Every structure is written in C-alpha cells, then in structure tokens.
Amino acid sequence: MAQEVVRYRKATRVLHHVHTAAFVVLFLTGLVLFIPQLGFIAQGGWTRVLHRIAAVIFAVAPVLYVLFNWEAAKKGIKEAFTWGSEDIKWLKAAPGYYFFMDESKMPPQGHMNTGQKMWWFMVLVFGALFVLTGIFMWFLKDILPAASFQWMIFIHDVSFIVTGCMLFLHIYLGVIHPLMTEAWKSITKGTVSAEYAKSHHGKWFKEDAKKKPKGA
Length: 216
Known about the structure:
Number of strands: 2
CATH class: Mainly Alpha
Number of domains: 1
Order of helices and strands: EHHHHHHHEHH
Distance between the termini: 24 Å
Radius of gyration: 19 Å
Strand order of the largest sheet: 1-2
CATH architecture: Up-down Bundle
Strand content: under 5%
C-alpha cells in the first residue's frame, strides 16, 4: 500500500467546503445582476435573500476558523504573503508545466506552490473587499453619499469578476488538469501519496511531511 501523508486537517477541509459553497451561491445569485436575460430569476427577491445568507456564512466561517485554529490560520496567511526566488522560477516554468506537462524546470515547492499562494492571496484580499463593501452596501446604503456608494458597488463588482474567473481556473487545476491527479483527494480526504507530495511539493515533503506527517 502506498504511503500517505496528511496535507490538510479536517478543520481546514471543512472551512474550504463551507467557504466554497457560500461563494458559489454568492457567485450565482450575483451573476443574475450581470446578465439581463436572467433577471426573471430574481423576481420576488429570493435571490437577494440567498445572497445575504451566503454572505453571512462567507464572512463568519473564516472568523470561526481563526478563533479555533489560530496557529494553522497564521501559518496559512504567512505563506500567502511570503514570496522568494523560487516563486519567480515557478512562474517562469509554469507555462511549460501546465500547457506542455514539462516538470523538469519546476523548482521544489513548499506546502503551497506559487499558484496556490496566488489563489490564497486573492482569497484573502478580495474576500476582505467583498465583506467590507458588502457591509457598506447592505447596512449603510442610506447613510453613504451617493458617490461613495457607487464606489462600493464598483469595488464589489470588480472583486466578483476577478474571483469568479479565478474560481473557474482553480476548479480546472484542482479537478481536471491531468497533472493534478491528487489535488481533489487532498481537499476531500486530506491526504496525498508520498510520491505525489515529492513531485508537487518536494520542499514541503522533505522538510516537514517526511519527519512527521501533518496538514495545514
């Protein structure tokens, strides 16, 4: 039986699934506003209710995670904002890796590869913008000057477009791309094979997982 190493603990996986489900609901109910032909779906205001329920879950779930998993949260945030020469090398090698399956030039990666750092960085930044602008739009729309309210809408919409596009890329790389054979398994079961860990996260496997398997 192949050796398995732990990539993500249960709490991290639960947060990922809850947060993703909330974002998908937010994305779909928000999409109605961007496509006029879908306007009939919003009749009766039920999409607004769903959007707000999902918004509360989207905002509260990470807070609960941080409160009960501070060390893991701190580690993850630090990874998203820690960049070095290996990340530059990864960016240079990424086109050949993802489009032509050339793994020869990819530098060994830590627990998060550079692509995951980029996604996680965007989740943190745009997630904060979503929550902040959403609070203003929901609770302070009658207080804000018209120009300020329009800026909140603009920032909210830009965040929606950017993260929506990145979500599709994230799903493709995590579920469909032929090189990411165990990415979905890592976030559902929490483990990957030692061989996959060596190939995709060699630096992490050597420094951490090989000593004592543990997740994020």
